[in-house]
Design brief:
The complex is a heterodimer of chains A (54) and B (389). Chain A is mainly α and 54 residues long. Chain A is built from two helices and no strands. Chain A starts with 5 loop residues before the first helix and ends with a helix. Chain B is mainly α and 389 residues long. The chains are: A mainly alpha (54), B mainly alpha (389).
């Protein structure tokens, strides 16, 4: 084990890229879920509309 | 007792053989080392915490017993033909056990709270900050593969820690495992002071409305499939981790495999857990465990948990700066983004009730908590992506 404080600074790059990647991936997943919910709501509305018409 | 000299009919050899037998009996005692006694004490402590304090008993008990097992002088449980070494090679060196356990965990998780309010997932991402902060901190003391493996303790997720540490060929697997599972059990002690330190009472009193919406079956079925695809595209190394977790969830949500889902949740998860704990203990040999490094790893693991909690809480506070009154978020829910499921979600809910008995944060905090499970696996995959090659 060797103490090298400069490694903290040099690895800050991974902190920035890592957190950015996670936030982006989660952002994409959120967008997908929101879209899926909207599609699901529309399909449900359409279905209930058809049932009412019958 | 029959001595070999008598069998051979050589009376002169009887005394010598008697001495030889006694030598065999105490020879092993001569191999005794004070470090073994320390490891027995550690094993005993883990068993005590599991039984008396109910701290992650499913894992700490097997690890504790296994620690004693491998720290007997010339233990036959480890070594080239040792049973635990065989189990390690068959189930952990190739990541099989943790991945099988992930099927069970996936089958246990209900993602409905997060599907109802998907925005909560952002806190799961923010609460992975501790992993990357610890990576920087640990890199000051350890080689980068070990530092990354230590950092992933902050994932608060045993299987992810095992897979990452193993794939990065860390020499500290035993210490990392003990730290990961111990701190997961200590979440009720670690998180509340950090949350209180970073929030005002006014913030802790913020009420959040919950509008429960029905989630369609199609959404629940597509969710695990799409998560696997999205995560796999960004971080191919995490495909097995996220894939097995989401496969378990798909079994649960598809509605046609209830029997398999129940088996995955109970039988499979329990069976793998039995072997996982005791096999991990094969890495808890005195020579490799009783080092200053181990204490440092335990300290860094704590840092990871603290900064995960802080990351989630501070991110919520940051968002509140841009939100109107009445739409503000109780920053405590950010802390649930640490993936220790469901403990972390429950702690936040209890803390909310303690401040205001009418403030029910459970659905929000559990939503953030399950998001943390996904985000921690993504973080594990990214760490592998960064450092495996």
């Amino acid at each position: 084990m060797v103490f090298n404080p400069l490694n903290f600074v040099s690895n800050l790059y991974y902190m920035g890229v890592g957190m950015a990647c996670i936030l982006i991936v989660i952002g994409v997943i959120i967008a997908f879920v929101v879209a899926l919910q909207k599609i699901g709501d529309k399909l449900a509305e359409k279905k209930s509309g058809e049932e009412d018409a019958q | 007792m029959i001595y070999s000299g008598e069998i051979r009919g050589i009376p002169g050899n009887t005394e010598r053989n008697h001495k030889h037998t006694m030598e065999i009996l105490y020879q092993n005692l001569l191999n005794m080392d004070w470090r073994y006694l320390v490891m027995w004490a550690i094993g005993g402590l883990l068993i005590y915490l599991a039984i008396a304090k109910d701290m992650e008993p499913t894992l700490l008990l097997p690890i504790g017993f296994g620690t004693i097992l491998v720290n007997l002088p010339l233990s036959g449980a480890i070594g080239e033909e040792g049973a635990l070494t065989t189990l390690f090679n068959a189930g952990i060196a190739n990541e099989l056990f943790p991945l099988l356990l992930f099927i069970g965990i996936g089958a246990m998780i209900d993602f409905t709270p997060v599907l109802t309010n998907p925005k909560l997932m952002i806190f799961g991402a923010a609460a992975q900050f501790g992993i990357f902060f610890t990576l920087c901190l640990a890199s000051m003391f350890f080689e980068i593969n070990d530092a990354a493996s230590i950092a992933i303790i902050g994932a608060a997720d045993g299987p992810t820690s095992i897979v990452v540490a193993n794939m990065l060929e860390s020499q500290y697997l035993g210490a990392i495992m003990v730290a990961a599972y111990s701190y997961m059990a200590l979440v009720p002690i670690i998180q509340p002071p950090v949350i209180k330190l970073l929030t005002t009472r006014k913030e802790r009193l913020i009420r959040m409305d919950y509008h429960g919406k029905p989630v369609s079956r199609l959404t629940k079925i597509l969710f695990p499939i799409v998560i696997t695809i999205i995560t796999g595209l960004v971080s191919p190394e995490s495909v097995s981790l996220i894939g097995f977790l989401m496969f378990g969830n798909l079994i649960r949500e598809c509605g046609v495999l209830n029997s398999l889902s129940e088996t995955a949740q109970k039988v499979l998860a329990n069976l793998v857990t039995i072997f996982l704990g005791i096999t991990i203990a094969s890495q808890m040999h005195a020579e490799s465990f009783l080092k200053l490094d181990t204490l440092l790893i335990l300290g860094l693991g704590l840092v990871a948990f603290v900064f995960d909690t802080a990351g989630g809480v501070l991110f919520a506070k940051l968002l509140n700066l841009f939100l109107k009154e009445g739409k503000k978020i109780n920053p405590m829910i950010g802390a649930a983004g640490i993936s220790a499921f469901p403990m972390s979600g429950r702690i936040v809910h209890k803390m909310g009730l303690k401040e205001d008995p009418q403030n029910f944060l459970l659905m929000h905090s559990i939503g953030v908590n399950v998001s943390g499970q996904i985000a921690s696996v993504i973080a594990g995959g990214l760490i592998l992506q960064f450092f495996m090659h």
